[in-house]
Amino acid sequence: MKNSNIIDKPRKAGAPDLLGVDDYMKALIKFVETCNMPTTIAVQGEWGSGKTSMLNQIKHEICETGLNKELDDKLPYYGIWINTWQYSIMKTREETLMAIIGGLTNEISKIIKRKHETQSQAVLNKVSSLFGKIAKAGAKAAVSQIGLEGDLIDAVIGNGEDTVDLLNFKNSLQEAINTCLELDKKQGNNNRGFIFFIDDLDRIDPPVAVEILELIKNIFEVDNCIFVLAIDYEVVVKGLVPKFGPLTDKNEREFRSFFDKIIQLPFSMPVAMYDVNHFLIQSLEDIGYIDEKFVENESMKDRLTDFAMLSVGTNPRSLKRLINTISLLKIIGEQKNENGKQVYELVVNFGLVCIQIAYPKIYQALIEEPDYKSWTDKTAKKMRLIELSESQSIALKDTTEFDEEWEIVLFRICQNDPYLSSRAFQISLLLNYLSEIVPNNLDFGDEIARILGASSVTSVSLDSIPKQAKKGEKIRFEGWQGFEQMLKGNKAITTFLPDLKTIHDYFETEYKDLIQFNYTPNFLTIACKYPSSRSRTIIFIRLKKESVLFEYSGKTVLISIISDFNDTVKSELKIRFNELSTKQLK
């Protein structure tokens, strides 16, 4: 059985390299193996770009596990992992800093104790004693934050005469680490030192993240130690605003100087170089969305990658969300017996979901007006879009992305949103690619509307919830249930609903997967799924007061009671179907 989703977890140690980042990881490892210490490396990237996965792989390749002595003796570093987010949950700023100091200290002590418990006991006791004093001072600061009186604080944590000296604590850590490495050498193990992997700094409050960086610099930057930090530079900028004020051209150097003071090697995740095609195709195969036959279609494979790159981009977390959405829609289709989709349907659906996730306002515009290639100035007025200036109109005519009327309407939609405005060319290219996928013998607007109906259930926009249609709007519903719910709000037709359901069920049973339904507030359309020409509509069923009007083959038939839907009408509709379809009904 295929898996239904791609878990949004960092790449496990030793797992296959689907994004093509191993060369960068190996280069970082070579740097680490030969660098002077202490050194701090910043693995930078936006949230979800793969920073934790990179740290996982480095730790796996060069750090002891404590589980296999023979293997550990060949690895050059002790590895310590600190998830700052976990240390900060339900804690104040002071408590978070103390928890991280304690976490780092405890992890160092555990390793040294495991390796050389007897010989290192004296230095470990010294570290423990000094940390105890720091913990008391930290506790006192934390308790004072909640407004307790000084005498009560002293009663809780004691009021000794000893003073806390962070320099002594730092020196005791250095002594403990040196002792561990010296004892290693006597045993024939040439460990170079300790690597501290500091993760999830971009998930905590930016000012606290900055304080953690300062903490590392002032307390834990000791010989034979390397810090590898997963962080987004934007978090550092936000955290420094209280200190330097908002970032401007004038003070940008101050922000950069702070970062450079702590970080000796900045490394940015190579998201632009990710092998998205490999990751995407492999993941879509894993969830059963595409099969081996599809994979052989190079042009369609490339279109999937194009759609992803023009929308969600190369961020692994965004790609996983996209794939999981596709998987759910596939399962819904299977539950509705909509199997055996053609290649073009799979690709169009993928492209529409890309738009849904990356550009929800464009997706909503498609919901309202699916036949986007027919968008005109009238459409723009209906959407209440801002008129273009004369200079904008002239400039657009010189671009291939906005030289058609519908593309100009798209441009006007994008101008209402700063993000869409910055991505207008990508959106235009995406929609142009999408229009090339739908076969010429099909009604373009109907196909987009049909496939949109299936994808709307995964939209996070309230606007995509079916609503009563205003004059001139095109609203479509996903399945009979949504259609019926809308009709129940129309009291005039309520009495005819059971008969309409009987008619609907007849078509569904008799024609099975050879037809498709399009549901709108004013009519029900039944279309041929495998048309022999561009004409594919079998019948329009217009909703009237306590009745419906059948329109097909140039004639109209009023259906007031279910007996009006007689064998003559059914026979005529079968003839109409066989005239339109490549697959005949007996």
Automatic annotation (TrEMBL):
Q: Name one Pfam family in it.
A: KAP_NTPase
Q: Which domain of life is it from?
A: Bacteria
Alphabetized SUPFAM superfamilies for the sequence:
P-loop containing nucleoside triphosphate hydrolases (SSF52540)
KAP NTPase domain segment(s)? 22-329
Q: Spell out the protein name for this chain.
A: KAP NTPase domain-containing protein
Q: Which PANTHER family match?
A: NTPASE KAP FAMILY P-LOOP DOMAIN-CONTAINING PROTEIN 1, NTPASE, KAP FAMILY P-LOOP DOMAIN-CONTAINING 1
